[in-house]
Amino acid sequence: MDISQDAAFLSDYDPAAYDRPSVTVDLVLLGMHRGRLSALLVQRDQPPQAERWALPGGFVAIDESLDAAAARLLRDKAGLDGAHLEQLYSFGAVDRDPRMRVITIAYLALLREEQMASAARAGLVTVAALEGETVAAIGEDGAALPLAFDHQEILTLARDRLRGKIDYSDVAFAFLPERFTLRALQDVHEAVLGAPLNKPAFRRRMLDRGRLIATGTREEDASHRPAELFSLSAR
Amino acid sequence: MDISQDAAFLSDYDPAAYDRPSVTVDLVLLGMHRGRLSALLVQRDQPPQAERWALPGGFVAIDESLDAAAARLLRDKAGLDGAHLEQLYSFGAVDRDPRMRVITIAYLALLREEQMASAARAGLVTVAALEGETVAAIGEDGAALPLAFDHQEILTLARDRLRGKIDYSDVAFAFLPERFTLRALQDVHEAVLGAPLNKPAFRRRMLDRGRLIATGTREEDASHRPAELFSLSAR
DNA sequence: AAAATAGTGTCTTTCAGACAGTATACA
DNA sequence: TGTATACTGTCTGAAAGACACTATTTT
Q1: pLDDT for the residue B149
Q2: pLDDT in the model for residue B1
Q3: Which of A46, A62, A105 is closest, CB to CB, to B90?
């Protein structure tokens, strides 16, 4: 029987008769740490690839959607509800996991500072600062960290996706608290793009979009003139 | 046992003990037909959703990558090799197929005119002109065609992805032959965007990018002044 | 010559970069 | 008062839209 059956003839085909790949969801948890775009990873404690750093993930249950699996894993692995979550890409190289055939659907989760802290309490480690043209994960000591499986490829794609859409979407705000300064917003853009931006032009661009609401209040901790706090209006 | 096992502990988990979803690849074949962005579909001949129009697709074999499955299906279903092929998005709603749990990875295939003809010879039907804000598939007679499963959602995402990247990528050229006129290139852009473009500005933009090579030859069939033929330089 | 489309010149508008300047907080 | 950063005004240059104009082919 031809395994390449068309969807139109799917009912002719008994899927139980064939080997099926396993399906997992892997999470790319990103946030700002010390002014840099960083990822939260777990260090593997068993072979294969013991000691290497990996994205948290898990199997997709038979009765849950991909989005639901990602949300459940975000809750179970990072103790988080309601973080920005979006599907990134699916990875299905035959030998990406040496134990068995695993297809993974990678999701991007964007975290605020207090969400980063919550994930750290749940056991995830903020290890990767995403630097350079091809992403390298950098530990606290500045050394490059070895990544497990194809997770460097996944991290690179996550960083590139973020770069591509930060200009026209609201993803930057997912890293920021409810109220934020224009400087903090610019810092996020610069960390993601890996390049400095022109301040007056950035302010103009953001304000001209009409999505920022001046709250009339100002930041409080600053040791200099405090900046105004803005919030994002609903679309 | 906790099904939400982390990748770091995957080896503790016996996947054969749990139900696994089936994994398919569905193809969104797009091309220009009568000046409009169109899709190639198959009409289902069996329940469920008999008579409805569907994307061609098939199961991912245990020993082939997602990209390889998409290429194989493109060959088997449309008789095509070497068309532009890229992963679009993965769809995994629990009830998207009433027969069983199927997760599908949708791929976008962009076809030239002669590739459209080849696919038609292989049994696919050029039916959908993608019109309006939410995509509707329009048959030759102008009537909206009912789509199977979640395939309208997939088509909409394909159209939107194309719109989003036509400006900064080379996807427009995937619809055109080796040598083409600037008018034909503009027609592709306008069909994808669903809006007219300014001619001098379009020419300037395309030529200033430095990727177009003037061939010195001109189109031949025209009943008016023939336009120069260009080709795309390698990046 | 008429018709049709290719292709160009140029004015205007819009917007980003640059940079200097003013404003306002804390020390 | 000094200093650090917030915030603004304005010049310049790059690029897009608008539109009229010229060029070249077929009928």
Answers
A1: 97
A2: 35
A3: A105
